[in-house]
Structure formats: structure tokens, C-alpha cells
Amino acid sequence: MKDNRENRRRFIKGAALMAGAALESMRLSSAQSTRKGEKEIPIPGPSYVVPPYGERSRFVTSVRQGEFAPLQDFSGIITPSALHYTVNHGSPVPDIDPQQHRLMIHGLVDRPLIFTVDEVKRFPSVSRVHFLQCAGSSYLPLGDRERAVTVQQTHGKTSCSEWTGVPLAILLKEAGVKPSGTWLVAEGAEWKKHSISIPMEKAMDDALVVYAQNGEPIRREQGFPLRLLTPGWEGVRNVKYLRRIKVVDQPYMTKWESSVYTNLRPDGKARWFQFELEPNSVITFPSGGQRLPGAGFFEISGLAWSGAGAVRRVEVSTDGGRTWNDAKLQEPVLSKAHTRFRFDWNWDGRQAVLLSRCTDEWGAVQPTKAQVEKLWGVTPDYWLSTTNRIQHFNACQPWKVTPEGSVDNAIWES
Q: Do residue 129 and residue 238 come from a single domain?
């Protein structure tokens, strides 16, 4: 009996030693396979390598195409920072040292000031969810229309993020704006020093000097380390790499507001200072370039937004605009932010034309292309011009679903 107990103790001791050696071997093997720059995170059980900065699965391949965000691949309303659309107006993306960057406020003020980035961050901050949109989004010139197949190519210059920063009004009050200061000129630090005029009313209302996007410092291509955010206004007025704000008594008529971001009318005159973005929406599924496997149930989904405030209603048509039905708005529904809408659809397998229509909190309704032509006083030939610069085009976007299930861009078919 004594010999049996002794043999059992030796067996248990030996098994424990073997298990310890195996665990140590696994630990050493894991440590040797750790890539440079990564470290092990101690957790119970065997050690695992955790990347120091989160990486998506290798099976997720969604990317920006040039400046255009892949709207068709998103869920909810927040655009991942790495996929946010970007426009740099001809300048390369700068690599700015935040310790060397400065923001100057001068002009018609009592106390000209120069802030470091850290000094800006000391002021009371806010976080808000807002969309950004290039004024040229939703429209492509004649020469580009053959490639305007997907929603990424037609509407991919809009994105939505949570922005954190300091209300511009706080910084302007620190400097003491003089009564004659009714405008400001904001300037960036990139190569071409993008600059543009902003009315003082907007600056004192909801404009922000932001330094964070979706919980982390702004990405380089989005304006690191500081950018101006003018919620609901055309993207060109949200100056990136913000380095200077000059308080003035009139707009400065910079290149971008006097010649580029304008709409030429048939009478030879142009629409200037179009600031606020009109109500807009687009179906992201099903949308151009996608294919439905066959007749049956599908959930139509998309995004709606308005520069004037919150989205109050989105309607969907599956018969080319002859009839409309209310879509469901997914919470949260926020002011001057993307709103996700959803609509249940049983496709019968016949050709269908899908559209969405947004109504904002002020009752403004997104128009069809024919209604835009009437509002602007133009004919369908207006869109055939290769020289017109079209801004603020917000017509309802039709997607044609063929009996074979393919989805095509149908906006220029009428």
C-alpha cells in the first residue's frame, strides 16, 4: 500500500513538471514570434500577441478610392477615421509636429494671440457628431460619368465623425473681437495655404477648432493637429491644418470662394457663398455596382443628412418616384449629422428604380433632378456642359435594378 502511494506521488510530480515545461516552451515560442514593436499582454493561460494598434481582419478590404469614402461598406452613421473622404485642394498631406504648430488670431481684435496646440486643449472642450461634405459631392462632370457607377463614386465625398475641440467663440472672445469684425479669414498650414472667408455669425454660433476625431487625434489627411469645423457648411469652409484666423470687416474673396466653389448659371452669372448644404440622401444598399441574387426580401438602407439641422423624414420609392413610403430612421438622429434609414422591400424580380428623399427639421425637401432644373432655371442640357462647375447638387439618386439583379446608376437617363 505504501509503495502504491509513493508511486502515485512520483507520477503526479512528474506530470506537473512536464506540464510546466510545456507551458514554458509555449511562452518562449510566442515571445520569439512577436513582431518588432509589439509586446505581450499578460492574460490567464497561454500568452497571445496583441497588436499595439488595432488592425482590422485581413478579410476586410474596404478602402478609399482616391478621395472617395466607401459608403456602401459602412454600418450606422460613423465613418471610420481611416476611411473618411479627403480633399486637399492640390497640396500634399503635410507632416506637422504639434509641438511646433501655432494658431494665431489677429486682425480686428483687442488682443492678438498665438496659441500652441496644448494651450488650445486647455480651454473647455465639447464633442459633437457632424457630417462633412465636399460641395462637389453627388455630381460628376460629363467626362467622369462613365466611371460614376457606385455610390462611392457618386456620393463618396461625405463622411461623419465625432469631433472634439474648443468652440471658436471662446478663442475669439479671448482675443476680443472689435465691433467692426464681421468676417474672418481662416488659413491652413499646408503647402498652398488654403484660405477662405467665414461670417462672424457662424464663427460665434457652432464653429469648432477641433483636435480629435472619433476619440483619437485627427488623422493627418483630416487636418492634424488642428482644423476648423463649420457644421453643416460645405467642406471647403472647414479649413484643415488651421494656423491663422484673421478677423476682418468683409469677405476676402479668395480663389476658392470667388472662382472654384461657385455655380455658373446660363445667363453667365454665378452663385456665390452657398455656405449651408441642402437636405440630401442616398441609398447605399442596393446601390450601383452591386448585384441582388434573386427576387425576395431585402432591406434597403442608406444615409440622409442636412446642413440646416436634423433629418425628420426619409421616404423611399421603388417605382422611380411615382409613389413614396416612409423609411425607418435609426437612432441616434442628430443635428447636422448622417442619419441611417432602413426600408423593408420584397422585390418581385422585375425592373425597379429605387430612390430616397430627405426632409429636414425645417421642412426642406430633397428635390428630384427635374425639380433641381426648375429651381436653378436650367434645362437638361445644362448637365451636358464640360465647363460648368456644379456645386450643391442634391438631387434624389435613382438606382435601377434590372431583372438579372444588377444595379446601375440611372440619374442621367432622364
A: yes
Task: Give residue-wise pLDDT tens across range 302-357.
Answer: 999 999 999 999 999 999 999 999 999 999 999 999 999 999 999 999 999 999 99
Grid coordinates standing for 242? 488651421
CATH code of the domain covering residue 330: 2.60.40.650
pLDDT tens-digit series, residues 163-189: 999 999 999 999 999 999 999 999 999
What is the extent of the structural domain holding 14? 2-50
214, 235, 252 - which closes a domain? 252
For β-strands 399-401 and 296-305, DSSP reports them as: unpaired
Grid coordinates in use for 142? 460629363
Cis, peptide link before residue 380, omega less than 30° from 0? no
Question: Helix, strand, coil proportions of the chain in percent (round to 5)?
Answer: 25, 30, 45
Give the residue from 411, 380, 140, 367 showing the smallest Cα distance to 266: 380
* DSSP at 282: E
Contacting residues for 242 by C-beta, under 8 A, at least 6 apart: 103, 186, 187, 188, 189, 209, 223, 226, 227, 228
Query: Does residue 191 belong to any structural domain of this protein?
Result: yes
